[in-house]
Amino acid sequence: MKPPGPVHRLLTFRTLRTRLTVLYMGLFSLGLILSAIAVVTAVTSSARGMVRDEMASAGAVYSQLWDARSSQMREGAAAMARDPGLRAAIATEDAPAVRSALEDLRASGRVDGAMILGIDGQAVSAGLNPDAAAIDALLKGLGSGGLDGGVLTMEGQAFQVAAAPVAGAAGWVVFAERLDAAQMRNLERLSAIPLSAAVVLNPSQVSTGQPATIETDKGESMQLAHALPSFDPGVKAALVLTYPLHRAMQPYETLFLWLTAIGAAGLALLMSGTWVLSRGLTRPITALDEAVHRVQQGEYVEAPVTSADEIGRLAGRFNAMVGDLKDREARLTHMALHDQETGLPNRLSLERQASGHADAWVILFGVDRFEVVRSAIGYDSMGRLLAVLGARLSALADGAPIARVGAGALGLVIIASSKAEALEAAEHLAAAAQEPISVNGAPVDIALTAGVAGHGAAGSDLTSSVDRAAIALDQARTARRTAAAFDEVAYGDPAGNLSLISELMTALADGEVSLAYQPKYDFRAGGVTGVEALMRWTHPRRGAVAPDLFIGMAEETGHIRPLTEWAIRRAIEDQKTMAAAGHSLTVAVNISGRLLSDESFADFAVNEVATSGATLCFEITETAVMGNPEMALRIVDRFADAGISVSLDDYGSGLSSLTYLKRIRADELKIDKSFILGLDDSARDGLLVKSTIDLAHGLGLKVTAEGVETPTALALLQGMGCDMAQGYLIGRPVPIAALLERLAVPARETKAAIR
Ligand code: G
Ligand code: G
Ligand code: MN
Question: Does residue 547 line the site of ligand 1, with CB under 6 A?
Fold first, then answer.
């Protein structure tokens, strides 16, 4: 998943800075809105109050004006009613005279219209055109209604009307003033505020004398209705003053505009200010966050310390922690790559060195008799000795770093173009470094053996060249050489052999192990007088397993005894089978030198031979006798006492010691096949074989030569006085059935086959 980008973080409020800015802006906006509400409310209510007051006073002024006008008109009417000329005209019912008087009055401009009204409903008028309904309303109002002034509607037009009775006559002088738009304008002009006035007939709102707020098509308006007396009881009249409230607010509009502008500017200023300020506040935290992240990725970075406050201290402590971490890792890395005892680099560091270069060769130097030296001088001194030796090897190898690979093994990497060159370098270094080293003032002799390995073949199990060099070191020691390169063929497949021994034990029970017999030819008797029993193992998966391999492993793991006991029992049984077939043969069984230190094995063997009456020969490897001489010699004595002949096997292949040859109670000596195989072409081997035969005879031993493959070798051995011969020429090791078949062939034919 992609990590969120800065914009995404900003939008989702994932940065401290955005959150701070938004918080401050929110708080400021809230304050702004609250004060705006307060200002608007205060201003509105004060404006309304002002309008209401103004209306109330305008209303009062109007009613005074109305009253004043009414009485003025009444007085005018009364004055006219007193006029003798008019009275006379009325009395004589001189209508034209009355009309002209009225016309004069109207023309004077003092009133819009005038009328003489008789109680009989007879009316003479000027400037007016009263209809029957108006006359009727007038009569009622003036007569029974007791009115002397009020609103009257004529021809759809409202008039202010005032009347005075004509003395001595049944009638009235009526003055009328048009309540038209012009009149209203005059009224409006009297007010300090621009309100609109209108006389409304049958108003929908009943007058309360108090200004009220109503909704009009121009928005909210304040309205005050002032009831006027009306002649027609069916028609109510009122003076209505209206004032749209938005006009009252008009003077404040600029104020509001300014307030809004100031608020917006303040908000913008606050936002940028907070943004800038919070940057200063959050930058160290952001830097710290970044540093923590990078340390997590394995990078050692420091966070900048920009202030002395808590964040600054946090950054400082973080840096100190990173420093400690770095030191600790360096120490751990050093420990992982170095030997604690000598301070030298260790196996791991050598492996790293070796992996870099295609021409790199690892040379391991093993200190010979390491345990012996160490137990003589102690662990501490051994550590110092190895350090000195390492320094010496490093100096000899042009300063190549020396690693301690095992208890007594030092290693280094050299660059060489071939195996031979690497081996030569190893031999040279091992020889040159073998000078005594002084430990605690006393010189200690040092002998070194070297193992060499280059890069392994692909697919090999031993991928580490250090591992292979260590095996090469063992191989060099086994071969008694100063240096050896890793030999893959000789190494074989030890991993595959790890389970071999447990398999061998079950194999014994399952009958996978058998004995093969190889004939031994007796020169004097001119025929086969004995056989050697050789163990064979046919593994269900691996097929034939080499006896050298499984016998060597059985010896090393302490399993050789059950194997040998089985072989002895089998050999005794088979000898009976041979006897039954008419062949009286000595059966030779190979006995591991290790069993010569096992008294109870000797008990077993002696008992088996005694109870079966078998004629056995035990072939014992000569080198094994050397290992634990006293006990071995005693056990061999017991075999001899029990009538078992003893044969010294593989004579000449190990370190022969004439001392033991003299002391051991053997009957026979078997010359190792390595001498016999070279008999045909090597005069030297011939000499050695001849002198060995003479030596053995001198000690009273019979001699068997093994590895006889050619008639020449057989003839030579006969000439040298050898007693017996064994080898492929005479017969290969075969199962008992095949052996019996072969033995059934008459002796003469056998001889012919040999010749
Ligand atoms: O022919 P062959 O490859 O089997 O002999 C290999 C080696 O195994 C020989 O040195 C022989 O002495 C040894 N060997 C064969 N059978 C036995 C046995 O039964 N016991 C012991 N100890 N060694 C044996
Ligand atoms: O070590 P010991 O003598 O037990 O071993 C006998 C070994 O010698 C067996 O491995 C056997 O197979 C081998 N052997 C016997 N005769 C010959 C021979 O003529 N030539 C060779 N190369 N090996 C032989
Ligand atoms: Mn043998």
Answer: yes
